[in-house]
Structure formats: structure tokens, C-alpha cells
Amino acid sequence: MANDPRFAGETRLSMVDPGGHSTELVTADRTADGWEVKYRHSFPIGALALREGPLKEEVCSFPALMAAVKDLDATIGLEYRPHQCGHVVTLGATGTNLISIRTQLRRWDPELVHGQVLDYEEISKAVAWLGGMTLEERRAIPGLEPGREHTLHAGALILERFLFALHALNCTVSVRGWRHALLEDDRYFH
């Protein structure tokens, strides 16, 4: 991802990767020699953990969502200044599934997903919309990857709260994860 031409003009990237039990945040600046990491942290926040905690009910109530927001914001515990985050990129299944749903992909095509933009409002609406559905209703959504009906609303909430903390209005979806970032950086092989 570090060498992805889509981000060639960016001087700063912040990458958010919502996972099952942790969420990674990395902010890095472009230098003449590559990228310099300014901030890196693995937060003990994940979609599976939220489903075991405040979002354990199949259909989320408003109080449960607000409890999850409170827990997430307290655990994130940081707030970037406006414009400090640079260009935000999200990695992983949350972003890719939200794009697949928006475009109603019936068959996975990474080229149609990679580089698409999700705005904060779209993600927030997805939290409420998906959280208000039963598992069966989520399972029937065109474009949703099988098995993600259990966690996508929780992952979307995590992504929303990280964008809130970063003061970011949107994020670009990347189908290339950390594995690709490491493979593109020669420093990891020396």
C-alpha cells in the first residue's frame, strides 16, 4: 500500500484497520527515503469484542449503540487536530464490505473496491441501518460477504469512531492490507 499509485501525491497517510479483537492505527509521513511513522498503536478494540460486549444483542438498541460509542471513545482516548491525519485509508473487511454493499457486488472484484471512498455520514448511517437488522436481514444484503453479518455493524462503528477521533470526513478503502505494506517496504527484509 505504501507504493500504491493512488496515494503517490499524499504527504501523510493514516491507516485504520478494524479487526476482530484489535484495531491498528498508523500515521506516517512521506520522506525522500520512503515513509516515517509518526504514530502507531494497536487498540484493544475489535468487532468481535464489541459483539461480546455492548453490541451482544442481535438487533442493537439505541442505548447499546451509545454504550459502545462511549466505550470506544474512551478506549481510543485521542483526538487529532483538524487536518493532522492526512489522507485516511481503511484496510480490511469493514471498508471492503461497505463498498461491496453500496455497489451491490454479487462477485468479489478487488479492482471495483480498491480506492473507493467512504464518507463519515455513509459509515454512520450504515451503523444504524445494519445494527437495526436481524442476522437474517443482514445476511440477505446484496454484496455482503458471507459470515460478515455478525460483525459488520460493529466494524462500521469502530471505523466511524476512529474517523471521529482523527477529524476525518472520509476514508479510502484499500484491499491491500498490512501484509502488502510489509512486502513493499525493503526495510523488513534486511
3D structure, described in words:
39% of the residues lie in helices and 21% in strands. It has 190 residues and is of the alpha/beta class. The chain has a domain at 53-183: 2-Layer Sandwich (Nucleotidyltransferase, domain 5), CATH 3.30.420. It contains 8 helices and 6 strands. Residues 179-190 have low confidence and may be disordered. The longest helix is centred in the middle third of the chain and has 15 residues, at 62-76.
Produce the secondary structure layout.
Blueprint: E1 12-18, E2 23-31, E3 34-43, H1 47-52, H2 62-76, E4 87-91, H3 93-103, H4 110-113, E5 117-119, H5 120-131, H6 135-139, H7 152-166, E6 170-174, H8 178-183
Helix pairs in contact: 2-7, 3-7, 5-7
Distance between the termini: 19 Å
Question: What integer value in Å does the Rg equal?
Answer: 16 Å
Order of helices and strands: EEEHHEHHEHHHEH
The global form is globular
Helix content range: 25-40%
**What is the helix tally?**
8
Return the structural class.
Answer: alpha/beta
What's the CATH architecture of the domain at 53-183? 2-Layer Sandwich
β-sheet strand percentage = 15-25%
This entry's quaternary arrangement is single chain
What is the CATH class designation of the domain at 53-183?
Alpha Beta
CATH homologous superfamily label of the domain at 53-183:
Exopolyphosphatase. Domain 2
Number of strands: 6
Q: Low-confidence parts lasting 5 or more residues at pLDDT below 50? A: 179-190
